[in-house]
């Protein structure tokens, strides 16, 4: 089921949560809404679900305008951040709930509901836990129950709000891979919200980067990582360092010294240079490069991150250097980004 | 080597402080609560069991008991429904005047019951607008059972709502949203999700509401007109008997009323134990 968000605006009282957001979600896609808290990603998810209604704009499911349909009629599977499992119902009853509350003519028989709930629990690898109550399950198991419950209603679209937010790192990784498998075997159009860029990049077919109620960039994980289209996206996705530069005839200058980097088509004037701290090469000798004094250094796993002071004490930035590099405090290091982006302003 | 003396808990006071506080609390409870309660029962049975039974099976006493139970049977379910509705509105929705409504719910707690009674006299008395209208329709409100029910409703309104508002606010709307996203309509959501989540709080509120409904004196006293055998509830009957110097009969009815209250309290304590267990298991959260 294609989902189309058309020029949607949402205000809560006087607070604008989304400004004119448009997005095409293709059938069968796994999409991540990625952004910091307050970026409007959960609001967008709730609008698609019908748990909130847009102030302006429309949401289409396929060719059909679903904007005015109630959440019950939209038939979406929604997995809540804290799962919202019904605590007084067994796992089996939780999963069967969506079928039990159907109108009589669409409702399967009791035995059929139970069978389907059991099959789904088997599918999410929770066979044997039917009689348990939510408070007797671990966080990861609750997450699986919540997903099975959402899948039970045979949703047109599956929506997940921070699906792994409340889990510890190990379980989170495991469930991530598992969600991908579930997605591939069911083929549901799936949208999930996350603030964890690693999660979004690893899991999604396409990533929607959001900030302050706007969509900044939509693209495949590689695209948004390698070619961020704005300073916001660059600094939000992955590690980044930035340096204020000026551009003269297509060349970058910092404090009137040439850096040996091209401006990539950005017009002459003031700009910012962005690069990944790990995507640099150390330069020996007198080549044109960015030079700085090491002020702090820390070892993280396989690399060493050093903080450099560039241009007197004015700018600080981080780069990654090999662990065996001899640099210590006060050492001068010269480097050049291997890949970089330039944004005017 | 392990320490072989037991170190005191850092928050534990000295033994003296502990015993002094316990004795003060115990004495206070004994003088203010326990001794009077025992005295009521002793006085009730002073002339023997026969006299006690005779006193509470006397026609006026029986009528008072019946009326008290009837009033509670009407007022408590109504306030249960109103209380749930009010708590639902306040806890789950945002709307203008919410703070005002919350304050209004507390009004019966802050206003003297006598004033509550007088309000109904003003509203439905012979000099009022509403009274004659109802009278001409053949419905006597004041100095009749409907007045007693209304006054009791007013006084006992806050119990259920007050109990549920914090509970429902704490639980939020997540479970309800989950239910509707799964296709449940409003009633199914309430019956299958909301009600089970609030059932202990609701029962607790209902019990307190019931205890007060049976024991209310001030407001009922004003609106009832004290027609013996007709509009006199147990608390009123006790006062009438007492004023007639019929102490043993007064205490007999009082003992029965106290017994009803005690049963309510015991039920409440039992519920709290179950409720507490649920809470410890995390069933509420």
Give a structural overview.
The complex is a heterodimer of chains A (345) and B (285). Chain A has 345 residues and is of the alpha+beta class. Chain A contains nine helices and 20 strands. Chain A has helices at residues 41-49, 71-74, 91-100, 110-123, 139-152, 169-186, 197-203, 221-226, 231-236; strands at residues 3-12, 15-25, 30-34, 56-61, 64-65, 76-79, 157-161, 189-194, 206-211, 214-219, 241-248, 251-254, 257-262, 269-275, 280-282, 290-300, 303-310, 315-321, 332-337, 341-344. In chain A, the strands form four sheets. In chain A, strands 6-7-8-3-9-10 form a six-stranded mixed β-sheet, sandwiched between helices. Chain A has a five-stranded antiparallel β-sheet with strand order 13-12-11-14-20. In chain A, a hairpin with a 2-residue loop joins strand 9 and strand 10. The two termini of chain A are 41 Å apart. With 285 residues, chain B is mainly alpha-helical. Helix content of chain B is 78%, strand content 0%. Chain B has helices at 15-44, 48-57, 59-92, 98-110, 113-124, 130-136, 145-156, 158-171, 174-181, 186-215, 218-224, 234-243, 247-280. Mean pLDDT of chain B is 88; it is low at 280-285.
Subunit organisation of the chains: heterodimer
What is the CA-based Rg of chain A, rounded?
25 Å
Amount of beta strand of chain A? 35-45%
Number of strands of chain A: 20
What number is the mean pLDDT of chain B? 88
**Largest interface, counted by CB within 8 Å of the partner chain's CB:** A-B, 26 and 21 residues
The counted number of beta strands of chain B is: 0
Shape of chain B: flat
Number of helices of chain A: 9
Structural class of chain A, please?
A: alpha+beta
**Count of helical stretches of chain B:** 13
Gap from first CA to last CA of chain B: 43 Å
The fraction of residues assigned to DSSP E strands of chain B is: under 5%
Helix percentage range of chain A:
25-40%
The biggest sheet of chain B amounts to: none
Structural class per helix/strand content of chain B? mainly alpha
Give the proportion of residues in helices of chain B. over 70%
Largest sheet of chain A, if any?
Answer: 6 strands, mixed
Detail the poorly predicted runs of chain A: none
Order of helices and strands of chain B: HHHHHHHHHHHHH
Give me the Rg of chain B, rounded: 24 Å
